[in-house]
Amino acid sequence: MADEILEILKNARSVGVLTGAGISAESGIPTFRGKDGLWNKYDPVDLATLDAFRGNPLKVWQWYLWRMWLISKAKPNAGHLSLAEMENLFPAFLLITQNVDGLHRLAGSKNLVELHGNIFEGKCRDCGKVFEEEEFSELFALADRKRLEKMSEEEFKKVVLNGLKEEELPVCPICGSIVGPGVVWFGESLPEDALERAFAFAEKSDVFFSVGTSAVVQPAASIPLIAKRHGAVLVEVNPEETPLSPYCDFVFRASASEVLPGILSSLTE
Ligand code: NAD
Ligand code: APR
Ligand code: ZN
Which end of the chain is more exposed for a tag (fewer CB within 10 A), N or C? Predict the structure, then answer.
């Protein structure tokens, strides 16, 4: 099976990839729906929604800063790094991720769409202004990935969980509202330009990979099916079965950090 997909890849002109929390699991970031899933511990209704933020911005920011602190310790793994290298092997390549951890950026991926935003960015939900990672860390020093990475757990708990006050939260320089995390919340729509770019690329992919996603959350979950409907060879990389599995031409029932380096080395030997 692997030889067949390798032959197809060697002749492919455009390759698309959709990734989910599973590719970052081996970097130590819990997935959402797996056995140690993040949502199992917290009720996202309390935290990952606009209502929660309006009601208690400090509590929502403390939760997100905790996730950012955890994520700041994570490094890209072999799966992320392989995808960054694969980008240069094809005339057209697009990496579409649902992850907000920024690990694909750190791994060096350039042709990248972050469908659900990036946890180190900021978004003002009143005037719509999005603050890129660098700009946001100037507005909100605590949100700086490098600063969080250096913080020990006790320092983090002292400064953020016990010390942070609402008046220290980032204020939008345009409209004066409190700026929230730059991720897409339950019920919010995804950044239109990101979604359009992802759909358009899926329609012209020769090969499309679904890596480390349970393929249950819309609209991301429909992207691999759009590729398939437009003639792409569909490949899944996931240790578990998903609703997408029956539609796949090839399935690697293993982890991304094993499978992707293997594909990369076969393509470059
Ligand atoms: P959902 O099923 O309600 O739909 C997602 C949103 O995307 C909808 O509100 C809609 O506005 C938009 N949408 C759906 N289909 C679309 C299409 N075909 N074209 C354009 N827009 C479309 O999702 P949800 O469970 O309410 O969560 C909303 C989004 O936020 C999801 O994508 C989810 O993955 C994401 N999310 C992110 C985090 C995070 O921390 N990154 C946490 C929770 C949810
Ligand atoms: N390699 C590949 N896949 C893996 C690995 C691994 N090492 N470890 C776990 N997986 C798989 C699991 O089998 C599961 O199917 O990754 C998938 C993770 O699924 P979810 O936790 O549902 O994460 P995801 O699909 O990204 O969720 C979609 O929902 O809550 C929202 O915005 C959030 O972006 C997220 C979206
Ligand atoms: Zn604003």
Answer: C
